[in-house]
TrEMBL record:
PANTHER family for this protein: 2-IMINOBUTANOATE/2-IMINOPROPANOATE DEAMINASE RIDA (PTHR11803), PROTEIN HMF1-RELATED (PTHR11803:SF58)
Biological source species: Devosia riboflavina
Gene Ontology CC annotations of this record: cytosol
Protein's name in the database: Endoribonuclease L-PSP
Domain of life: Bacteria
Family of this protein: Belongs to the RutC family.
Length: 134
């Protein structure tokens, strides 16, 4: 992509950079892609695996596929929202480890949201993205 995204972690806010994301992301006017929440569903329609760690593998594969379709990289992600069933310290650790690996050093703005359920039984996590595109 040709335009940069300015990332900020002001001293007046908690240091989100230590956790792998940014408190603020600034993008110049242009085109944005809003990627629907990705869950642990494979293209072939197979059911979601039972553990969060297994689901995160599929979710990050789906996120990568969306970026490829957009001809974008993780550096082009402006914002992510992560919805997790039974959000707690253990699920945060598992989810953020997988997200950190997926982001590979990129630090978009990120919000984690605990929910009681997702779109179908057995789904434990859903991740959506806003991506800057050319």
């Amino acid at each position: 992509m040709t335009q940069t995204i300015t990332r900020m972690n002001p001293e007046s806010l908690p240091d989100a950079g230590q956790a792998g994301y940014s408190q603020i992301s600034i993008v110049e006017p242009g085109r944005l892609a809003f990627v629907s929440g990705q869950v642990a569903w494979k293209r072939d329609g197979g059911s979601a695996p039972g553990t969060l760690a297994e689901q995160m593998v599929i979710v990050t594969e789906n996120l990568s596929a969306a970026l490829t379709a957009l001809k974008a990289t993780t550096e082009d992600i402006v914002q992510m929202r992560i919805y997790a069933v039974e959000l707690g310290p253990e699920s945060m650790q598992i989810g953020m480890a997988a997200i950190g690996k997926f982001l590979n050093g990129a630090q978009p703005s990120l919000t984690g949201i605990g929910v009681t359920a997702l779109a179908a039984p057995g789904l434990l996590i859903e991740v959506e993205m806003v991506v800057r595109v050319d």
